[in-house]
Automatic annotation (TrEMBL):
Residues 43-273 form the ABC transporter domain. Residues 1-40 are annotated as: Disordered. It comes from the Bacteria. SMART domains: AAA. GO terms for molecular function: ABC-type ferric iron transporter activity; ATP binding; ATP hydrolysis activity. GO terms for biological process: molybdate ion transport. It comes from Streptomyces griseoviridis. InterPro entries: AAA+_ATPase, ABC_SmlMolc_Importer, ABC_transporter-like_ATP-bd, ABC_transporter-like_CS, ABC_transpr_FbpC, Mo/tungstate-bd_C_term_dom, Mop_domain, P-loop_NTPase. Keywords: ATP-binding, Cell membrane, Ion transport, Iron, Iron transport, Membrane, Molybdenum, Nucleotide-binding, Transport. This is ABC transporter ATP-binding protein. GO terms for cellular component: membrane.
């Protein structure tokens, strides 16, 4: 195969892309595997225990994903998300654990022979090839004739709404179009595992909104396993059926998007979903925090619990309110202010560190500024307590 055919590269190395090994140039589409490794039939899905040690860092996560399910690995920078994705693709060797896909052990399978498709953050399309030939690259690597590979590529471009751009080279494509070409290239090899690394990070805000909705529709039609790596909670919650939150190489929480948003279990997750979160000991409707402060809730619980409430549930006063109906009252000090349009978020320290959201008008009327003393109240009905 020649560069002019769009097939000059083998699955073992590519145009400067670290992930080439997955069967295509640059990993943007590695779909790889052998010719019969893909397919649209269902299997047992992904069963993985990924253990990777690199210096002082250790990744140790277990993933079980059913065919047709979309899982998002969510976490801060350095949590181990990308290491997990590279381990699944075969680009980073496992130190221990297991990796099975549809019942087949892949720990010793070279990247180029795995039925895996990868879409990396910057897409890594071949700049000298048309969109059609970029997508046809994978099937050609798997032995399809040039005509057959291009027919398959044309079908995928049509499915992703790019039939009119088949002859365009990457530099002529918008960010959203390039992203869809990369997805088409990954899917053209009919992978049993689709990996997407920050698939929307390279897009501007307007394009991101449109492409996010399109990608969700395509993922809903994908019959095999899909794993997304992202640090963006909105991408994760819109695209995935289930979230797996990774911090410091470990899974700290997993569940459906609604459950994660309602019941965060770490400060990182609480910040992502915009909640004040505390851990304490419940006795009936009262939760005593480690700081000695208490929070009154509507739930009646006993033992270790989390208690959370949104910044918008906090009402601020410059003077201690007389006869306030809120059951929770704390004396605080403003430590910072951030403006978001016509809203202001106040960071508070003092008896109970928390965040409060209020209108810019209210902030001005209260004369909020760093160092100002305020009273914060929260109604019990606006708190949410749940077992630790």
């Amino acid at each position: 195969m020649t560069a002019e055919d769009g097939d000059e590269m083998t699955g073992t190395g590519t145009a400067g892309a670290e992930g080439a090994g997955t069967g295509t140039a640059g990993a943007g589409d590695t779909g790889t595997g052998t010719a019969g490794a893909g397919g649209t039939g269902t299997g047992s899905g992904l069963d993985a225990h990924l253990v990777v040690e690199r210096g002082a860092f250790r990744l140790d996560v277990e993933l079980a994903v059913a065919p047709g399910e979309v899982v998002a690995l969510l976490g801060p920078n350095g949590a181990g998300k990308t290491t997990a994705l590279r381990a699944l693709a075969g680009l980073t060797p496992l130190t221990g654990g297991r990796l099975r896909l549809d019942g087949a052990a892949l720990e010793r399978t070279p990247p180029e022979l795995r039925p895996v498709g990868v879409v990396f953050q910057d897409y890594l399309l071949f700049p000298h090839l048309t969109a059609l030939d970029n997508v046809a690259f994978g099937p050609r690597c798997h032995g399809a004739s040039k005509a057959r590979a291009r027919a398959q590529a044309a079908e995928w471009l049509d499915r992703l709404g790019l039939a009119g751009h088949a002859g365009a080279k990457p530099r002529r494509l918008s960010g959203g179009q390039a992203q869809r070409v990369a997805v088409a290239r990954a899917l053209a090899t009919r992978p049993r595992l689709l990996l997407l690394d920050e698939p929307l990070a390279a897009l501007d805000a307007r394009t991101r909104l449109e492409v996010r909705a399109q990608l969700r529709r395509h993922l809903a039609e994908f019959e095999a396993v899909a794993v997304i790596v992202t640090h963006d909670p909105l991408d994760a919650m819109v695209l995935a059926d289930r979230l797996v939150v990774v911090e410091n190489g470990r899974i700290v929480q997993e569940g459906g998007p609604a459950d994660i948003a309602r019941r965060p279990r770490t400060d990182y997750i609480a910040q992502l979903v915009g909640l004040n979160l505390y851990r304490g000991e419940a006795d009936g409707h009262t939760v005593r925090l480690g700081s000695g402060q208490t929070v009154t809730t509507t739930e009646e619980l006993t033992g270790p619990v989390f208690v959370a409430f949104p910044p918008g549930a906090v009402t601020l006063y410059r003077d201690r309110p007389a006869g306030a109906s809120a059951r929770n009252l704390w004396r605080c000090e403003v430590t910072g202010l951030e403006s978001h349009g016509d809203r202001v978020r106040a960071a508070l320290g003092g008896e109970l560190p928390l965040a409060a959201d209020l209108s810019a008008v209210a902030a001005a009327e209260l004369d909020l500024r760093p160092g100002a003393e305020v009273w914060a109240t929260v109604k019990a009905a606006q708190t949410h307590a749940y077992p630790d």
